[in-house]
Amino acid sequence: MKQSIRLQLSALVLILAGLVCCKTPDPAPDNVVQRQDTLTITRVRAIDSTPVPASIQITDAGSEGIFKLNVADQSSADNTGIILVTKNGYRYKRDFQGAANLLWFGVKESDADIGPALETAISATGNIFIPDGKYTQLTPVYLASNLTLRANAGKVLITLPKSYVSLSSPVDPSIQLKNILVDGLTWNVTSTESSLRGPIYIDGPTVSDLTIQNCTSTDGAAKDSTNWLTLKIQAGKTATNIVVKNNTIQARRMACEIFNHDNYNIYAGKNITVSGNTFYNCHFGLSLSGPLSQLTVDNNYIKNCSLYGIEIAGAAQNVTITNNRFEGTFDKFLEGSNDGDGNGSIVGGMIVTGNSTVGLCQGGMQFYNGGAMQFSKNNFQMTGMLELLHSTSGGTFTENTIVSSSNKAIICDNTPNNTFSGNTISNKPNSENQATFMSYGSKATNNVLTKNKLIQGSGGKPYDAVLGGSCLASLNYDEAGNPIP
What is the tens place of the pLDDT at every residue in 31-89? Predict the structure, then answer.
């Protein structure tokens, strides 16, 4: 045999030997017995001899289930819920489908802090169900991508007596959060520590496809002014496809705050929907702030927010505010304003339609950056007025009922080219009427007032234009249907 052939055969033998060495060895026949033993978790962990059973039925209350031997796994850590490791290094994996039950991880209602066990569960699996009960959490838990965290709505109460934060973004902001669902949890914040953070606090990472729904939270017993949901978009990061729906929230500061203040002129937050929520007894019900785009605020019920009910701030684009109801006391129940000088540019205008007050609302509405608004079919009874300022120009206001007890129901304050048609506008409850409708200031030109029912309070005028403003009025009529000249 030639020397080259011998060398080739030797190399082949070495390669085959290496492949054999790299392959995970099958268990020796006498190391595993094909049977299912019934054991506690403690007894499984104590196994230090062979043969070991192929499967085990766990009997611990709350952790019951079948675990199957996985001889190929030589590294997974014991997490109580899904992986159990014997003393001699064999690993058993729970056989299940669907969501993992948090009780599997050793959680009990009597635990002083469910935080560590919940953190372990999130590290172990992406689908977790929290059983009905009352729990205490002292330490925050870090969210992870591809996570579903679910409870029966109204059946799980998590009290936060120390940390305001229940669910947080990872410490490392380079870790993205995507495909997350939080569903049905209830929090009661009673912490006496000092913090502005709240139960769900996300600050740092890029976030996409986040849904938070059917949750409840109160912090009336807490010491500090907190949010319920905070989502801060850091410089160089984005937030897309964010849904906050069907939650009932009381928060001392803000129920829901989503903001982009660190990406100047960059619309880093897109496709954000806040719908079907009840926000009450807050300073702000909802604040969406900074350069954001494709905002939908629909069918929320907002009550008694001392500052703003809904605030859209900072040059947002493509904003739709529809079918929301406001009740109680506010400074402004609907506010569209800039942060300082604003960021970016306004494209198009806000769509504000189908919104209403429940009874008489204390407070009014103010739009700084409404753009060319489409404001229609709203029904508001309020103590304040509708104020249009700065970049709210070129809008159409149609088929609204606006009843105010202020000395002006609507004022265009240095805003031009707005058209009001087919509305009922009244400040009849006011005893010292200045004007039911007013164009105010040298920039408030070419505001059109046509085919409206104008019901004025005592004295004053149905409409007026002062300090250089102009109002093009025609075909308007009073409460009795008489034409207004």
Answer: 899 999 999 999 999 999 999 999 999 999 999 999 999 999 999 999 999 999 999 99
Q: Is 371 exposed, middle or buried (0-12, 13-18, 19+ CB in 10 A)?
A: buried
Q: Using an 8 Å Cβ cutoff, are 401 and 379 in contact?
A: yes
Q: Angle at Cα 398 formed by Cα 394 and Cα 404, nearest 5°?
A: 100
The amino acid at 41 = I
Cα separation of 449 and 470, whole Å?
10
In sequence order, what are the residues at sequence separation of 6 or more whose Cβ sits closer than 8 angstroms to the Cβ of residue 211?
180, 181, 182, 183, 242, 243, 244, 245
- Which residue, among 108, 87, 90, 100, has the nearest Cα to 42 in the 3D structure? 87
**CA gap 90, 28 in Å, rounded:** 13
Residue 8 phi, psi (nearest 5):
-65, -40
Where along the chain do its domains lie?
31-97, 99-191
Distance CA 415, CA 398 (A): 17
- Provide mean pLDDT across the span 334-346: 65
Q: Are 278 and 327 in contact (CB under 8 A)?
A: no
* Residue 142 backbone dihedrals phi, psi, to 5 degrees: -95, 125
Residue scoring higher pLDDT (11 or 145): 145
Q: How crowded is the C-beta side of 292, counted as CA atoms within 13 Å?
A: 35
What does the DSSP 8-state code read for residue 481?
S
d(Cα 132, Cα 467) in Å, to the nearest integer?
Answer: 64
CA-atom Rg of the chain in angstroms: 31
134's tokens:
């009352």
Average pLDDT over residues 333-355: 76
Backbone phi, psi, residue 286, to 5°: -140, 130
Length of the chain equals 485
Whole-number Å distance between alpha carbons of 229 and 285: 11
pTM of the full predicted structure? Answer: 0.91
User: Cα(141)–Cα(166) distance, rounded to whole angstroms?
Assistant: 6
DSSP readout, 393-439? -S-EEES-EEEE-SS-SEEEES----EEES-EEE-TT-SS-SEEEEE
| C-alpha–C-alpha distance, residues 223 and 423, integer Å | 46
Least Cα distance to 158 among 139, 135, 176 occurs for 135
d(CA 102, CA 104): 5
Nearest of 133, 149, 211 to residue 179 by alpha carbon: 211
